[in-house]
Amino acid sequence: MKRMSDKKGRCVFISGMGVGSGYPVRVETMLKVPLYNLEEVVSKVRELEREGCELLRVAFPSLELKEQLQCLIKSTNIPIMADIHFDPNLALSAIEAGCPSVRINPGNMKNKKALREIVSAAKERGVVIRIGANGGSLASSFYERAQGDQAKALVLAVEEQIKLMWDEGFEDLIISAKATSINATLKANILLKQRYPYPLHIGITEAGPGVHGVTKSSVGIALMLSQGIGDTIRVSLTDSSVKEIKVGQEILQALGIRRFRADLVSCPTCGRKRIDVQTLVKAIEPVLDKFPKDWTIAVMGCEVNGPKEASSANLGVAGTLSGVVFFQHGKIVGKCSVEDIETYVKTLIKHL
Question: Where are the transmembrane segments (predicted)?
Fold first, then answer.
């Protein structure tokens, strides 16, 4: 594969939303309820809309679900991507249903004639295709050619379908190579980034539950983003889609790539604490979205980590012997008792 296309980064548009060069890194997730339960689907989608989901991948395993897919597409402003495996007819049906993007898996979609039909339909309707290789579903032939190197096998799988797309003159592509191994995923995406200009979807697949899943996803995604790799991200957790969106947004905000809400800084506490910091944080978190999103809110347990250490905070609160003190950019602006914290914060918000 010698062709390097245009080495300048490309972008694609899914329902008018830009992905790739010149656009923000998008946070996406996958619908975790079956399409046939349309009432629950719509309810979950409404939650995701409120959380700021920017792209929603939806499993489309049966032609019988075409009507439900159409209803979903019409019911939300979130761009939808149909997730297709094994049967090329499912991709054609999703495109006919009005889906603006489809994901095909090179591990189980190898019929070249059928793939050409998908490309033709995508061209006709302006549909974006994501080539999404996954370490768990790669054909053994890719591993053989890569001499057992999973990262190289992932790249070979993606490249095989890129070439087919080139043969058909199609380049409205997003590419993706994911595995449960952080190292293999990182290596594969470095290679793809070096070779192709297409937007990259990144993540660590099957990262797991709880702290383990959040940590593994965060480390892997941050490693790639810190090297300029990644145009859309998904945090793949054994948890709700809403949790995936929240963690994805926090990763981007922690890296300074995007800002979704005010930043909350709080001390880990120690034996000097004058106040229960966890209780105070729980009082602040529900109203965090009420503050300007470029603000930093600091919650400190005592005078050591109070106004001086959090002097850059737009608004801070620290425990004292007699209650709490509020400060802005290191300057004390108010005091109150622990019992009056919520009332005081609400008053401050009203005067922003």
Answer: none
